[in-house]
C-alpha cells in the first residue's frame, strides 16, 4: 500500500513567482525526506478557509507570504516568541489539535547578512525602508545583534513610529518618514518595501548611501532590482538581493517541520546560476 506523503506549501497572492517549491524540493532530496510542496494562490478573503481546508485534509505546514502574514498570526492558536514579537507569521505548523505560527524571516535575514555575506551589525547604523510584514519579522533579530541605531523609514511617519514603538524595549530603534531621513550615510540600508515587486524604487534619499554603505534588497529578481541598481549608482560598497534570505528562512521552516536542518550552500549556488540572465 502507498504511504501518504506529507503535504506542505506556500500560500500568497500572487505566488506564481515563488521559488519555494524548488528550494524545499531540493532540501527534501538532500535530507531524504518524503514530502510534496505546492503553491497556493489565495486572495485575502479566502485565506482563512483555504488554510483550514489544507489542514483538514492532513496538510502538515504552510509558508505564508505577501499579503497574508498578519492574517496568519491571527489564525494560529499559538505563536512562537519571535512570531509574537513580529505580529506576523511566515510558517504555519499544523499539529494534531492546534496550529503553531512562527516567523523565520528574521533568522533568515540575519544568517544571510552575517554568515553568508560577512556583514557586521554590532555598533552599526542600520536603515530599514518599509514597515510591512517582512520588516516586522526582522526588527527584533537585528536589534539582538546590538546595532548602534536602527531607523525604520516608511512613507507615512505614523506607521514607522508605531512600529518602532513596538520594539523600543529591545534596543535603539526609531521611526522616520522616508523623506525626513537624516542626510548622512548609513552602514547598512535594507529595502523591506515591496516596491521592487512592481519595479519601483522607494523614495529613499540619496544621502543615506555612502561609499562604505552595504545595501540589501529583501526582494529578489533574475536581474538587478531597481533598488540594487540605484544603490550601485550611488556608489555603495555592495548591493545584494534577498536570495540568501529566501533560502535561509526556508531552511529554518524546513527544520521546524521536519526536525532536520538542510545544508543551504548548494541551493544558494544553484539559485545564483538560475537567476543569471540568459547568456551570462
Ligand atoms: P507588505 O505588503 O507587508 O509590506 C510592504 C511595505 O512596502 C509597506 O510598508 C509599504 O508601505 C511599503 N511600500 C510598498 N511600495 C512602496 C514604495 N513604492 N515606496 C515606499 N514604500 C513602499 O510586504 P512584505 O513586508 O511581506 O514584503 C516586503 C518585501 O520583502 C517584498 O518585496 C517581499 O518579496 C520581500 N521579502 C523577501 C523575503 C526573502 O526571503 N528574501 C522574505 C519576506 C519578504 P505602506 O505601508 O506605505 O503601504
Report on the architecture of this protein.
The structure is a single chain. With 280 residues, the protein is α/β, with parallel strands linked by helices. It folds into 2 domains: 6-103 and 247-275, Rossmann fold; 106-241, Rossmann fold, CATH 3.40.50. Helix content is 37%, strand content 20%. A 6-stranded mixed beta sheet has the order 2-1-3-5-6-4, sandwiched between helices. Helix 1 packs across helix 9 (243-258), helix 5 packs across helix 6 and helix 5 (105-116) crosses helix 9. Bound molecules: NADPH dihydro-nicotinamide-adenine-dinucleotide phosphate (NDP). NADPH dihydro-nicotinamide-adenine-dinucleotide phosphate binds next to helix 5, helix 6 and helix 9.
**CATH top level of the largest domain?**
Alpha Beta
Q: How many distinct helices?
A: 10
- Mass-distribution shape: globular
Assigned CATH architecture of the largest domain: 3-Layer(aba) Sandwich
Tally of separate domains: 2
The CATH superfamily label of the largest domain reads NAD(P)-binding Rossmann-like Domain
Q: Which cofactors or ions or other ligands sit in this model?
A: NADPH dihydro-nicotinamide-adenine-dinucleotide phosphate
SSE series: EHEHEHEHEEHEHEHEEEHEHH
Pick out the low-confidence regions: none
List keywords for this structure.
37% helix; 6-stranded mixed sheet; 10 helices; 6-stranded parallel sheet; Rossmann fold; alpha/beta; 280 residues; binds NADPH dihydro-nicotinamide-adenine-dinucleotide phosphate
